[in-house]
Amino acid sequence: MLDISVIIPVYNAAQFLEKSVNSAVHFDEVKEVILIEDKSTDNSLEICQKLASENPKIKLFQHPDKGNHGAGATRNLGIEKASGNFITFLDADDYYLPNRFDAEKNIFNDPKIEGVFGAIGVEYLTEKGKLEYQKKFKDAPLTTVNYPAEGEEVFRGLLSLTPKKFGTFFHLNALTIRKSALEKSKLRFNENLRVHQDSDFNIKLSYHCYLKSGIIDNAVAIRGIHDDNRITKIAQYSPQYNQRQYLYWKSLYDWVSENNLSLEYKKRIYLSFKSFDLSQKKGWAKYSNILWEGFKNPEILKTKYRFNYYR
Prior knowledge:
Helix content: 40-55%
Largest sheet: 7 strands, mixed
CATH superfamily of the largest domain: Spore Coat Polysaccharide Biosynthesis Protein SpsA, Chain A
Distance between the termini: 53 Å
Number of domains: 2
Order of helices and strands: EHEHEHEEHEEHEHEHHEEHHH
Shape: globular
Number of helices: 11
Strand order of the largest sheet: 3-2-1-4-9-6-10
CATH topology of the largest domain: Spore Coat Polysaccharide Biosynthesis Protein SpsA, Chain A
């Protein structure tokens, strides 16, 4: 049987936390639910303490300084505290479905497989949150990929290098990874990224580890959509959006520069990084840099971010 450590970063999630924890703790495969409280300003800490006192499978930790360090650092602390052979993640305002580990039970019989990912659905908890989400992501019922894949195909797909459109990402809520794979690759979340650290982690993970798709046509977890979802607050190609994307792609560009990836992968990441780097420039400097970059790398005009240059 799998022995799984579920890591839940907790920040201002009092109204959702109990449902989230209860959705995970009852699985036979779940060895422990690790709550990492990140200096909430509501009563999340008290709820964490109550839950941990009621069930020995629920363990509560905070950062050594009791401070707020963001989701990346909080998940990293959870990884360090995890004692299970497998690690999963769950956001404190989301919850698992009963089929969460159905695919893993069989797929992990193959020792080559180091991680499994699936699909998540959405539940609209507020009308405002629903409108913001649908404006940005349309009304997609699932966050998933378009076809089954494993190994390098997953990495290529996430970088949009496959002949068929694979899909831009899978959600951490639907990822199960061997802890030994994280230790082997020395992979952790980029603590300098306050947003997109999950996408950054997943792309790096898909390169360093052998991943395989699990249940991708039905949800294995549900994402709660409400008024305070940070990812839906920022308009596409606004200055703040461009800055967040720049930091995300810079993290990947720094990583690819430090590792011996193929030229194809380096160029793909560089073009996206450079697109948002150019978006940070102003006035004549911006347009002269666009012209120069287009002359050196005409492919940049074919990236999905090409229209970002002129805003």
